[in-house]
Design brief:
Number of helices: 15
Strand content: 5-15%
Shape: globular
Strand order of the largest sheet: 2-3-1-4-5
Largest sheet: 5 strands, parallel
Structural class: alpha/beta
Mean pLDDT: 90
Number of strands: 5
């Protein structure tokens, strides 16, 4: 039975898709063709999560005889149980963590959740203000399949999450990558990752960028369709799927105001102050100066 022993556990919007694809090119590494299976995140329930062990293990059936079988599920860092479940499944697993300035990460995550219909508050500040109400089950979009993704500040508690993995796996089995380094020194960061894994670090991967920005679909149209599943089913009975998908995408982009590419400087400054204790704690935990995140 082929079992994974390499896990890219997060965090959201920090380059995990690109790193997954770079690692998959290496002849000594097999990465699951299905990114984000989320199998070990028992406390999170996105609709795509694989829940059966047989289905999960089948992701690795086509693997060659290689040193590592891996998968990437960025929600594993956020999950309260994934680290323990992975440890029980594979005690000697290697863990890769990718971290991004939490202020920038939550803004990017907000945009991604809008894109995937898990968020319906276009204004970033309003979405942050709604967190406490959403913890009570209020203002959850009908199309949101995992409300915990909307608790932006919880998602950004890196140091607390990282300690879970350090305590279970030991620092020697965890490799932390900063998004800053990954973006500016991609080839060098990739080589360091290969060195950590003990595979041929002279291998040159095609370092293409993945997950570029996309246009946010129309929120009103999308909400209308999600609230009327019977209407969607009726369409599917009489119209070919390619036509429905094209129509949905076209309608979804109708007159939709697009979110600014970056947040207001004053908001960024306020959030930086809010996250300063977290950034300082993480800096101490990593033994790395993160003052550039505070500027």
């Amino acid at each position: 039975m082929k079992k994974p022993n390499l896990f890219l556990v997060g965090v959201f919007k920090s380059g995990t898709t690109s790193m997954h694809n770079y690692l998959a090119q290496h002849p000594e590494i097999f990465m699951s063709p299905c990114k984000e299976p989320y199998y070990f995140a028992f406390d999170l329930n996105p609709y795509w999560r694989i829940k059966e062990i047989s289905e999960y293990l089948s992701l690795f059936n086509s693997a060659r005889d290689v040193k590592y079988l891996g998968e990437s599920s960025p929600g594993y860092m956020y999950s309260e149980v994934a680290a323990k479940q992975i440890k029980e499944f594979c005690p000697n697993a290697k863990i890769i963590v990718m971290l991004r300035n939490p202020v920038d990460m939550i803004y990017s995550l907000h945009g991604q959740l809008l894109l995937t219909a898990n968020e319906d508050i276009l204004d970033f500040e309003r979405a942050l203000a709604a967190q406490n109400e959403r913890r009570q089950g209020n203002f959850i979009p009908v199309s949101c399949d995992e409300p915990k993704f909307l608790f932006y500040f919880d998602v950004a508690k890196y140091s607390f999450q990282l300690k879970r993995y350090i305590n279970l796996f030991g620092r020697e089995n965890i490799h932390v990558i900063l998004f800053d380094d990954f973006g500016k020194k991609t080839a060098a960061t990739y080589k360091q990752t290969l060195d950590f894994l003990g595979v041929d670090s002279t291998f040159k991967a095609a370092l293409d960028v993945h997950n570029s920005a996309q246009q946010i679909p129309n929120l009103a149209v999308r909400s209308f369709l999600y609230k009327r599943p019977a209407l969607k089913k009726s369409f599917r009975r009489v119209l070919p799927s390619f036509f429905i998908n094209g129509l949905r995408d076209s309608l979804g982009k109708l007159t939709q105001p697009q979110r600014p590419k970056s947040m207001q400087p004053v908001v960024h400054s306020q959030l930086t102050q809010l996250f300063q204790p977290e950034i300082e704690e993480l800096s101490s935990l990593l033994n790395r100066d993160l003052n550039h995140w505070l500027k």
